[in-house]
From TrEMBL:
Membrane-protein topology: Multi-pass membrane protein
Subcellular localization, as worded in the UniProt entry: Membrane
CDD domains recorded: ClC_sycA_like
Keywords: Membrane, Transmembrane, Transmembrane helix
SUPFAM superfamilies reported for this sequence: Clc chloride channel
Protein name stated in the entry: Voltage-gated chloride channel family protein
Pfam family of the protein (one): Voltage_CLC
Organism: Algoriphagus aestuariicola
Record-annotated membrane-spanning stretches: 24-45, 57-77, 151-176, 188-207, 227-245, 266-288, 342-365, 377-396
InterPro entries in alphabetical order: Cl-channel_core, ClC, ClC-type_chloride_channel
Keyword Transmembrane applies: yes
Length: 416
C-alpha cells in the first residue's frame, strides 16, 4: 500500500506543479486587482461623502428618505445581496448559489448613502462584500470547481479587507480565520496572501489612496504586573464586543417583527438616528468616527463614548442601513480603552490600541488576525500586549458574533 501511494505521488510532474502555481498566482493577482480597485473607488467616494456631510449638516435631516431608498432598492432588486457578509460565509460553507454581481454596486451606493446622510457605520463590510462578489465571478469565467471557488472567495475577502485598511498580512489572516474556523487548508494560504498584497498595492500606489496612521508612543516593560493588567482590560473588551454584536441583532429582530415591509425599517431607523443627533447636539458618533479614534490615542475622552457608538451603530445597521461594523468596533474599543486608563495603570495610547483590536477580536472571533493587524498598525513592539488582549477578549465574548452565519464550533468551551 505504501508503495502504491508513493507511485501515485510521483504522477504529479514538476511541470504540472509549476502550471498550478502559475494559475493560482494569476487568479489571486486578478482578484487583488479587482478588489483593490473597488476599495479605492469606495474609499475615495466615502471621503467625498463624509466631507460633503460635514460641511452641510442639514443633509442628516434626509437620512429617513435615504433609508427608505436603500431599503426599497434592496427589497425589490437586491435578491440575496441583503444578506451581506453572511452570504459570503454561506457560499463558503455550503457552496450553493453564486454570489450575485449586483452585490458590488448595491453595497457601494448603499454605504455611501448611509454615510452621506449621517448613519453610523463602517467600511470593512462593504469592501469585503465587493471583493467577495467580484471574486466569485471568476467561478463562471474560469469554470472553477467547488474547492477552487472557496479559495477565490477567500482571496476576495482577503483583498477587500487588506486594501480598505492598508493591512495586507491581517487581511489574509482574517479571511482564513474568519471563513474557515478550524478548517484551515494549506492550499488557501498562498493565494490569500498574494491577493492581499496585490490589492493593498493597487489601492495605495496604483490609485494613491492613503490610510489613517495611529501611534503608541510608550510601550511598558513586559513585567508580570503590566501583563496581568491586560487581563481585566481584555475581559472588558470581550463583554463590549458581545454587547456590540447583540445590540445590532436585537435591533434587527425588533424592526423585522414590527415592520413587515422592509423599506420601512431604515426609514424609521433614520428618523430615530436624526432625532438622536439633533437632541444630543453632536455629530461625533455618526459616520466612521475616525477623528475620535485618533483622539482616543492622545487625550482622555468622555467615558460613555463607546456606549454611544455601540448604540448608534446597532440602530443604524440593525434597522437596515448598509456599511461595515469594523471601524465602529475600532471606535468602541479605542474609546473603551481610553476610559479604562482611569483605573488601569497602563499608558493611555496602549490601552486604546488594545481596545481597538480587542473588541474587534471578540466581535468577529478572529484573535490571530486582530493581533497581526494591531502589529501592522501600531508596531510590533506592542505585540505581546495586543495578543493577550485579543485572546482574552475572544474568549470572554462568548458565542456571540456580528456575523450570524459564522461557524463558532471552535468556541464550544464557552457557552455564554
Amino acid at each position: 500500500m505504501l508503495r502504491l501511494v508513493l507511485l501515485q505521488t510521483q504522477l504529479v510532474t514538476p511541470g504540472e506543479i509549476a502550471s498550478n502555481i502559475g494559475r493560482w498566482l494569476f487568479l489571486a493577482a486578478l482578484v487583488g486587482l479587482l478588489s483593490g480597485s473597488a476599495s479605492a473607488v469606495f474609499l475615495l467616494s466615502l471621503d467625498f461623502a463624509t466631507e460633503l456631510r460635514d460641511s452641510h449638516l442639514w443633509l442628516i435631516a434626509f437620512l429617513p428618505l435615504a433609508g427608505f431608498a436603500i431599503g426599497y432598492v434592496y427589497h425589490h432588486y437586491g435578491a440575496k445581496s441583503s444578506q451581506g457578509n453572511n452570504l459570503l460565509l454561506e457560499a463558503l460553507y455550503h457552496g450553493k448559489d453564486p454570489i450575485p454581481l449586483r452585490m458590488t454596486p448595491l453595497v457601494l451606493f448603499g454605504t455611501i448613502f448611509t454615510h452621506l446622510f449621517g448613519g453610523s457605520a463602517g467600511r470593512e463590510g462593504t469592501a469585503v462584500q465587493m471583493g467577495g462578489s467580484l471574486a466569485d465571478q471568476l467561478t463562471k469565467w474560469f469554470s472553477l470547481h467547488k474547492a477552487d471557488r472557496r479559495i477565490v472567495i477567500i482571496c476576495g475577502v482577503s483583498g477587500g479587507f487588506a486594501s480598505v485598511f492598508g493591512t495586507p498580512l491581517a487581511g489574509a489572516v482574517f479571511s482564513l480565520e474568519w471563513m474557515l474556523v478550524r478548517k484551515l487548508r494549506w492550499r488557501s494560504i498562498p493565494p490569500a496572501f498574494f491577493a492581499a498584497f496585490v490589492a493593498d498595492w493597487i489601492c495605495e500606489f496604483g490609485w494613491g489612496v492613503g490610510h489613517t496612521h495611529y501611534f503608541i508612543p510608550e510601550i511598558p516593560s513586559h513585567s508580570q504586573a503590566n501583563l496581568a493588567w491586560v487581563i481585566p482590560a481584555g475581559i472588558a473588551f470581550g463583554f463590549s464586543a458581545r454587547l456590540f454584536a447583540e445590540t445590532a441583532h436585537v435591533v434587527s429582530a425588533v424592526f423585522k417583527k414590527t415592520f413587515a415591509y422592509p423599506p420601512l425599517r431604515p426609514l424609521v431607523g433614520g428618523v430615530l438616528i436624526a432625532l438622536l443627533v439633533y437632541l444630543s447636539g453632536t455629530t461625533t458618533y455618526i459616520g466612521l468616527g475616525v477623528p475620535r479614534i485618533v483622539e482616543a490615542f492622545e487625550t482622555p475622552l468622555p467615558w460613555y463614548d463607546w456606549l454611544a457608538k455601540t448604540g448608534l451603530t446597532g440602530l443604524t445597521l440593525g434597522s437596515g442601513f448598509k456599511g461595515g461594523e469594523v471601524t465602529p468596533l475600532f471606535f468602541t474599543g479605542a474609546t473603551l480603552g481610553n476610559a479604562l486608563s482611569a483605573w488601569i495603570p497602563l499608558p493611555l495610547a496602549l490601552l486604546a490600541g488594545m481596545g481597538f483590536v480587542g473588541v474587534f477580536s471578540g466581535a468577529t472571533n478572529t484573535p490571530m488576525a486582530c493581533t497581526v493587524m494591531g502589529m501592522e498598525l501600531f508596531g510590533y513592539e506592542a505585540g505581546v500586549f495586543l495578543g493577550i488582549a485579543c485572546l482574552v477578549a475572544y474568549f470572554f465574548s462568548g458565542k456571540g458574533s456580528i456575523y450570524a452565519s459564522q461557524n463558532l464550533e471552535a468556541k464550544y468551551l464557552w457557552r455564554l
